[in-house]
Amino acid sequence: MRKVLNLASLLILATAAGLAQAAESTRRFDREAGHYVDVAVADPYLELHTGPGRGYPVFRVVPRGEHVEILFRRTDWFKVRDEYDREGWAFRDSMQETLLASGEKLPLEDLSHRDFDLYPWESGVQSGNFGGGNVNSLYVAYSLNANLAAQFEVAQTLGHAANGEIALLGLTHAPRPDWRVAPFLELGTGAVRIQPKATIITPPQRTEQIAYYGAGVKWYVSHRFLFRGDYRSYVLFTRRDSNEDRNEWKVGFAFFF
Amino acid sequence: MAAALALGGCSLWPFHKKPRAEEVPVEATAADGSAPAVVEPQVTRRTVKTPKIKSSNFEIGPYIGTYSAEDFGVNPVLGARLVYHISEDFFSQAMIGHTTVGRTSYERLSGGAQLLTDSQRKLTYYSLDFGYNLLPGEVFAGRRRAFNSALYVTGGVGATHFAGDNRFTVAIGAGYRMLLNDWLAAHFDVRDSIFDIDLLGSNKTTHNLETGLGVTVFF
Fold first, then answer.
1. Are A158 and B157 in contact (CB < 8 Å)?
2. Do A74 and A194 fall into the same domain?
3. Domain that holds residue A230
4. Residue B74 domain-assigned (yes or no)
5. Is residue A21 part of a domain?
6. B205 - beta bridge partners?
């Protein structure tokens, strides 16, 4: 009797193990089917790192022909899951060599130059000098075509005699946007609110129209990232007899998306 | 007999044309339209769509800590940050924080003298920083668990609204980020906000040290 029981339990265990294995094999790739992009490794192998960086060790290689699901992307690294549910990070250069179900290579944008159709938006921050005081600014630009972009900008000026807030709408024109260091010309207008600083008598704050022209340079450092420098000449259309002039320079960084 | 030979010869003689004879029926069937032609496949072309891969380069979250306003004591600070990861090395971040400063030693000792009104004691700052992941690595918790982490340095500019005025501020800092999973991170930061203040008549540069503990969500 005991023998029978032992045998029965052994059988149950074996069946359970078999079932588990079957479940394992059928689970390959039908979980959340279609939710993630599925690619096949076409290089001899795909290296999976433990983290999204070149210094993280490779803990698994996925051989040619096996599939991985792309869970998400962080900077130039892709978090992927292999057929055995192991997750790791693969670099974009190696992901570019994987194949979609259609047999095509996974299409990823070119690193070498900015793709204006793919990423028309650009946003950045700059800091510098505005008429002797400090200025911080934040801008968002939209590329109308490869050369021309419309830009909205807000800036805060922090001077010894006055503080101010500026809102500007402008256009930038880059004659050679394909250059890695691309110069541009700009033109714009907006409004400035000036809050004079004085300890004894505080003059009232005023809002004036402002216009500028200038030139600058964008340096496309890496994928989706650039440094930008501007030099501008402003005119403040005051309600007094004469207009005021201000010069401004600022440098900063931006990214496009 | 001769006719039979001639016929046989006819059918047998052009040996080199045999392979072509095999192609003929295929073409013939294609011509009647009974079967798809080799040159005109009736397979519907697969529409190739660019795959949508979710990207997760932004981080957002609150932090709490202490802000030491020079001369005005150490006070709790509450803030929020938005981070954009440009590459595995570089990131940019925007921070905004708020604290209410205490009283100076002079105010405390003199009894009734007040340098600032209550509303002037509210300090709000923003900072636009550029950051570098100086030491990326992993934290090993036990034998089976590892968390990705990075020690980073930041530098940036901004403004501090304090004592009734906006003051241009330069901020340098260092921090530690540990990713608890793919989308949640814990931060510990130390920052020095440097700005000029002319509260007591002459302009002086102040260093305002801040520590913060925060969480962020990647998206």
1. no
2. no
3. 121-256
4. yes
5. no
6. B196
Question: Does A240 lie at the interface with B, CB-CB under 8 angstroms?
Answer: no
In B, minimum Cα distance to A49 occurs at B148
Which chain B residue shows the shortest CA-CA distance from A70?
Answer: B53
ipTM confidence: 0.75
Say which CATH number the domain at A160 has: 2.40.160.20
- pLDDT-derived band of residue B14, with 50, 70 and 90 as boundaries? very low
Residues of B in contact with A55 (CB under 8 A): 136-137
Number of domains in chain B: 1
**Which member of B88, B146, B148 has the closest CB to residue A75?**
B88
The domain that contains B194 carries what CATH number?
2.40.160.20
Clarify whether residues A126 and A192 are in a common domain.
yes
d(CA A117, CA A144) in angstroms, rounded, equals 10
Whether residue A74 is found in the same domain as residue A200 = no
Q: What is the distance between the alpha carbons of residues B181 and A85, in angstroms, rounded to a whole number?
A: 16
Alpha helices in A65-192 (DSSP H): 92-95
Is residue B23 included in any domain, yes or no? no
Work out whether strand A87-91 and strand A58-63 pair parallel, antiparallel, or are unpaired: unpaired
Burial B92-131 (b: 16+ CB within 10 A, else e): bbbbebebbbebbeebeeeeeeebbeeebbbbebbbbbbb
* One domain for residues A240 and A138: yes
What sign has the CA pseudo-torsion A18, A20, A23, A28?
negative
Name which of B87, B130, B132, B169 to mutate to probe chain A: the one with the most chain A Cβ atoms within 10 A of its Cβ: B87
pLDDT tens sequence across B189-211: 999 999 998 887 788 899 999 99
Domain count along chain A: 2
pLDDT tens digits for B51-107?
778 888 899 999 999 999 988 999 999 999 999 998 889 999 999 999 999 888 888
Strand, coil or helix: what is A25? Answer: helix
Q: Do A54 and B84 touch (CB under 8 A)?
A: no
Tell me what the mean pLDDT of segment A100-125 comes to.
76
What are the residues of chain B with a beta carbon less than 8 Å away from any beta carbon of chain A? 46, 48, 50-57, 84-88, 90, 92, 94, 128, 130, 133, 136-138, 146, 148, 157-159, 165-168, 182, 218
HEC per residue, B126-164: EEEEEEEEEEEEEEEECCCEEEEEEEEEEEEEEEEEECC
